[in-house]
Specification:
Layout lengths: L4 E7 L5 H17 L3 E7 L5 H7 L4 E4 L10 H9 L2 E2 L4 H8 L1 H10 L7 E4 L5 H8 L6 E5 L9 E3 L2 H12 L5 E5 L3 E9 L2 E9 L7 H6 L4 E3 L6 H18 L4 E9 L4 E7 L9 H8 L4 H10 L13 H8 L2 H8 L1
The structure holds adenosine-5'-diphosphate and magnesium ion.
The site of adenosine-5'-diphosphate has 18 residues, from strand 6, strand 8, strand 12 and strand 13.
Length: 334
């Protein structure tokens, strides 16, 4: 493979900054060892992102950002303006996937099963929360609409827990999603350029794959393939692929699902810039599919592109006939 000058973009200002730095450093090291010219681009509150990205003079931007202002289309928009090919999804697909409400609306439109939900916005008074919840029932899962890494997410088993969970979630995003809690097996599916790489079952000790279980605990167990009947596993892969297509995502993505005890599949979300440390879930799935961590990074670099579409090239003859003004045509024939 021809060596490229690659800017690995990491850090940022989201709550997932630390995870992003870990992803970025791991990717940069792997690509450097593979012979590429690597520029580490660490975005942050005091950094002028446009200046940093434009002055780096890179062929490709490898996005190792997670969360708001990184995974949600904002940096992707800057790169479109600068004409620098980038990894991951387009501005629109990134924004849709980051917004759990919009993603769920599209899943429903495309017949991708997702847990029932409602949205809570506005003053989190006791009465407002109880009124809005009405007969929705318990247990419920309460999450900020636009956050990742399980930040601000809580399970609520009764009204008191619901009120507290809504207020916690609102400290991350004024817009909060309350979902039916699904008891079952948690599965995540890796997809590379539209094709599924495989599925992995996550079995956190305390049931919920929270921030601690994701990054700080060694008590979570992983199973490849998931402990599910083979036919059911095939269905999970298909739903993951449909979910990815519904949002029109590209490159390497990870789709999170839960398979209920009654064997119904529910898609939770699509991650457009999944964690990329060597022990993250996507690299684990890729490894079982025969890709080393470096192979995966290289495949992601190869998928980098600009997404803003160009007009379709029109045949020259058609342009000429359309361009001829009617009056001239009259003169010519008259
Ligand atoms: N409706 C639900 N029922 C049961 N568990 C859930 C539900 N929604 C989320 N979870 C748990 O919370 C974790 C994080 O939720 P997810 O929607 O994937 O958001 P994030 O963007 O924070 O990863 C999941 O991996 C799962 O363990
Ligand atoms: Mg998730």
């Amino acid at each position: 493979m021809k060596a490229k000058r690659i800017g690995v973009v990491m850090g940022g200002t989201s709550a997932e900054r630390e995870v992003s730095l870990r992803s970025g450093r791991a990717v940069a090291r792997a690509l450097e060892l593979a012979g590429h010219d690597i520029v580490r681009l660490e975005l942050g509150a005091q950094i002028h992102a446009l200046k940093m990205l434009s002055e780096a003079r890179v062929d490709v931007a490898f996005l190792a950002l997670h969360g708001r202002l990184g995974e949600d289309g904002c940096v992707q928009g800057l790169l479109e303006l600068l004409g620098i090919a980038y990894t991951g999804s387009s501005v629109l697909a990134s924004a849709l996937a980051m917004d759990k409400l919009k993603a769920k609306e599209l899943f429903r439109l495309h017949n991708v099963p997702t847990p029932p939900y409602y949205l809570f916005e506005g003053e989190p008074t006791r009465d407002a929360i109880i009124d809005c919840h009405a007969s929705f029932g318990f247990p419920a899962m309460v999450k900020p609409r636009r956050e990742g890494s399980s930040i601000g997410l809580q399970r609520a088993d009764d009204t008191e827990q619901l009120i507290s969970a809504v207020r916690i979630a609102q400290s991350h995003d004024a817009s909060v999603l309350v979902e039916r809690f699904i008891t079952g097996r948690e599965i995540t599916v890796g997809i590379l350029n539209g094709k599924t790489l495989g599925a992995l079952e996550v079995a956190p000790r305390d049931g919920i794959f929270d921030y601690h279980a994701k990054y700080q605990s060694n008590q979570t167990e992983y199973f490849i393939p998931p402990r599910l009947p083979e036919a059911l596993c095939g269905g999970v892969l298909q739903y993951a692929e449909h979910a990815a297509r519904a949002l029109n995502v590209s490159g390497a993505v990870r789709v999170d699902l839960i398979v209920s005890e009654g064997h119904n599949e529910y898609v939770l979300e699509v991650n457009t810039l999944p964690g990329m440390t060597p022990t993250s879930l996507l690299p684990k799935i890729a490894q079982a599919a025969g890709y080393s961590f470096t192979d995966l990074c290289e495949a992601i670099v190869d998928s980098a592109t600009l997404h803003v579409s160009q007009p379709r090239a029109v045949k020259e003859a058609a342009v000429v006939s359309l361009a001829a003004p009617p009056a001239e045509r009259l003169t010519a024939t008259g």
